[in-house]
Specification:
Blueprint: H1 2-21, E1 30-37, E2 43-46, E3 50-52, H2 65-79, E4 86-92, H3 95-111, E5 115-118
C-alpha cells in the first residue's frame, strides 16, 4: 500500500511539473523573396513574399539557400526564356521584417531606373528542397 501511494504521488508530481513546462511551439516556416537581375538586361524579375513551411533557420541562415536561388534561376530560364540572370534570395522569420528588406531592395533598383517585373505566385512558388539534395 505504501509503495502504491508513493507511486501515485510521484505520478501526480510528474503531471504537475509537465503541465507548467508546456510551451507553445513556435511555428516553423520562413518567408522568402527572390530577385533575378542581369547586367545584360534592364528588366529585374522578383517574386512576391512567400512562406515555406517546415523550414527553420539554422544559426540565422537559411539551410540549402543556394537551391532556392537555383529554383528561381530555372524559372527565369525556362518560363521567361532568359539566361545570364543572377538570382538572390532574401529570407526572414517574420513577414514584416522581410517586407522592410523588400522595400529597400526594390528602391535601389528603381533608383537605377531598371524595370521591375513581378513573377506571379501562380507561376512560381519556392519549394523546400528534399533532404537528399
Amino acid at each position: 500500500m505504501r509503495v502504491l501511494r508513493n507511486m501515485l504521488m510521484a505520478l501526480m508530481a510528474l503531471m504537475l511539473c509537465s503541465a507548467f513546462t508546456l510551451k507553445e511551439k513556435k511555428s516553423e516556416g520562413v518567408f522568402l523573396f527572390g530577385i533575378a537581375a542581369s547586367f545584360n538586361d534592364s528588366v529585374v524579375y522578383f517574386t512576391p513574399i512567400q512562406r515555406v513551411d517546415s523550414v527553420k533557420l539554422e544559426n540565422g541562415f537559411l539551410p540549402k539557400r543556394a537551391q532556392y536561388a537555383y529554383q528561381l534561376k530555372n524559372q527565369i530560364e525556362v518560363a521567361q526564356g532568359k539566361s545570364d540572370y543572377t538570382c538572390m534570395i532574401y529570407f526572414a522569420e517574420t513577414k514584416a521584417k522581410l517586407e522592410k528588406e523588400v522595400a529597400k531592395v526594390k528602391g535601389k533598383y528603381v533608383k537605377s531606373q531598371l524595370h521591375l517585373e513581378e513573377i506571379p505566385a501562380e507561376a512560381f512558388t519556392f519549394q523546400k528542397p528534399s533532404d537528399e539534395e
